[in-house]
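To: structure desk
From: M.T.
Subject: fold request, one chain
Message: Could you run this one when you get a chance? Sequence is below, nothing fancy, just the single chain.
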Amino acid sequence: MDPKFIHLNVHSDYSIKDGICKIEDLLKKCVEFEMPSIALTDFYNLSASIKFINKSYYYGIKPIIGVDIYIHYKNSFYKESHLLTILVMNNIGYKNLIKLVSLSFIKDKSKFNLNYNSIYYKLILKFHEGLIFLFSFDKFSCFGKYYIYRNIDLIKKIVLF
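Reply: Done. Structure tokens follow.
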């Protein structure tokens, strides 16, 4: 069997920050490119999840539910927020992701001058079961900057929760 590419970070027209791709058009391209699965990770929300799941099964594509959201460290060792992609592994993970996304909308962002939805690191520690976390690691990300400055201990402290 030939290895197949599975995209783990796609935004649809339901994404709050960006994305113009219609779900049905996305799935038709998956069929055309023989992609067995794809992850929908819209910014800050799960609004497209049910439509994405239903349409995916219709096209024979395995759906992976996820979200792109910022993680914020309140009163912690790390003062910046950074982007985090969260993918669901199972039903427990789906329920935990719903909790995390919901909490990102109701917390008081005004105390921290945040103009975007984010979740606190402590909430991830509480609701991490059944989830996969993908951290960005390029020269513009927090992790990339720490790597350039050889601060590996801080990277480990953030990632290995």
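Reply (cont.): The longest strand covers residues 62-72. Let me know if you need anything else for the meeting.
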